[in-house]
Amino acid sequence: MTKKRHSFSYELFKDKCKEHNLKITPQRISVYEELFSSPDHPNADVIFRKVRKTFPNISFDTINRTLLTFAKIGIVRIVEGSGEPKRFDSDIDNHHHFRCMKCNRIIDFQNKFYDNIKIPEDFKKQFTVLNKRVVLEGFCNKCKKTS
């Protein structure tokens, strides 16, 4: 059920940046690479602390705006949160999430049934659905043991 880590795509990054007239800077590459190499779904602060090691003068605002721009052009996704800072996911392939309500860990998973959820007709008349993601919430095995 757990999703395998997807492979890095500099070509996708480069193509999407060019398509949206976004300069390919060393800082933007570093932000994308840090997000991509993360084993989880980090927030902007986590990415900021990592990128700042290479670019000490970069600001948190620059990192945050860069991540939001990446989400807008479709090379990353903003992950569902629950009152906490936005978290980001470099995996743009169709998948779903489980969020632990105790430790806030987010786990990717794939499920064909969820991929094929039917949109109600009356809903389709009112809205344009661009993607479908299911978020399951509960306790991960580690937190379940300590509860």
Folded structure, characterized:
There is one protein chain. By secondary structure, the chain is of the alpha+beta class. The chain folds into two domains: 10-89, Arc Repressor Mutant, subunit A; 96-146, 2-Layer Sandwich (Dna Ligase, domain 1). 41% of the residues lie in helices and 13% in strands. The protein has seven helices and five strands, in the order ααααββββααβα. The chain has helices at 10-19, 26-37, 44-51, 60-73, 112-115, 121-126, 141-146; strands at 77-79, 87-89, 96-100, 106-109, 135-138. A three-stranded mixed sheet has the order 4-3-5, with no helix packed on it. It has a two-stranded antiparallel ribbon with strand order 1-2. Helix 2 packs across helix 3 (44-51) and helix 3 (44-51) crosses helix 4 (60-73). The longest helix is centred in the middle third of the chain and has 14 residues, at 60-73. The chain is globular, with a radius of gyration of 17 Å. The two termini are 24 Å apart.
Give a topology summary.
Blueprint: H1 10-19, H2 26-37, H3 44-51, H4 60-73, E1 77-79, E2 87-89, E3 96-100, E4 106-109, H5 112-115, H6 121-126, E5 135-138, H7 141-146
Parallel strand pairs: 3-5
Antiparallel strand pairs: 1-2, 3-4
